[in-house]
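Support request from a user on the community tier.

User writes: "When I paste my structure tokens into the form, the page sometimes reloads and wipes my input. The last time it worked, I copied everything first. Here is what I submitted, just in case something in the input itself triggers the reload:"
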């Protein structure tokens, strides 16, 4: 059974990745918007923002990476919704494959395509002056957090695709996620925000994730932020996965 699942998932990932490579404009689109935000905030608004650092690119990059991932998972919902409407799921279910591999194919493809976008954005940030003295272990920790964040949002994207009635409905859920970093510590310290906004910013998942990644890049103590970030990511990942599986079973019942 395990062999069947892994073989089926591998086939589904290859199929989904072919769609991505044949339509590279999706990755380009996902990458361009965060880079545009980075250019805008660094070269236009950066001088007026008091972030307590001389290198605003370093301060900004973690939030930009989260925006890119939040934008990228909308294409997972789009591709999954199109598969559902095309009737290809019925064909898959008539084959001797693990049914859950259909979802995992889309989820793992999201992980790969978002990883490509993240690497491109980091390369652009390096050109803009991003520097990190972090060693291998902190970088691996950053990668792990970004993987968890991507998986968490991707399973939420799966729920949206399985529940939507139209293509617009399938991707609309990502819009609030894209702008959530703006109400966090991603662009400015939360201490500079007015009362109610500050309370929200300090108690939503993006702030703890951004603070953790920023501390890892700068080789500073991560404090409790890393545990809060992991709790948010793992907790929402498990909830998203369970709800997605339930929605999938109802859809194919």
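"...and here is what came back when it finally went through:"
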């Amino acid at each position: 059974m395990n062999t069947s699942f892994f073989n089926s998932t591998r086939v589904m990932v290859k199929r989904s990745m072919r769609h991505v490579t044949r339509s590279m404009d999706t990755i380009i689109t996902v990458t361009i918007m965060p880079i545009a935000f980075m250019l805008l905030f660094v070269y236009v608004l950066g001088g007026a923002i008091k972030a307590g650092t001389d290198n605003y690119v370093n301060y900004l990059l973690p939030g930009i990476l989260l925006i890119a991932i939040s934008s990228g998972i909308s294409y997972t919902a789009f591709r999954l919704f199109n598969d559902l409407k095309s009737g290809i799921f019925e064909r898959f279910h008539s084959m001797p494959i693990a049914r859950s591999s259909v979802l995992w194919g889309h989820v793992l493809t999201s992980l790969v395509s978002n990883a490509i976008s993240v690497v491109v954005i980091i390369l652009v940030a390096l050109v803009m002056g991003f520097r990190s003295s972090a060693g291998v272990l902190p970088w691996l920790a950053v990668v792990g957090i970004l993987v968890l964040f991507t998986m968490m949002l991707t399973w939420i994207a799966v729920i949206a695709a399985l529940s939507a009635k139209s293509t617009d409905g399938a991707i609309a859920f990502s819009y609030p996620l894209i702008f959530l970093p703006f109400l966090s510590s991603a662009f400015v310290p939360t201490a500079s925000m007015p009362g109610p906004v500050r309370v929200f910013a300090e108690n939503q998942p993006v702030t703890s994730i951004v603070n953790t990644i920023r501390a890892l890049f700068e080789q500073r103590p991560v404090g409790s932020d890393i545990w809060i970030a992991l709790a948010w990511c793992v907790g929402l990942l498990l909830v998203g996965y369970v709800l997605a599986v339930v929605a999938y079973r109802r859809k194919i019942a």
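Agent notes: The reload is a front-end session timeout and is unrelated to the input. The chain has a mean pLDDT of 86. The chain has eleven helices and no strands. Escalated to web team.
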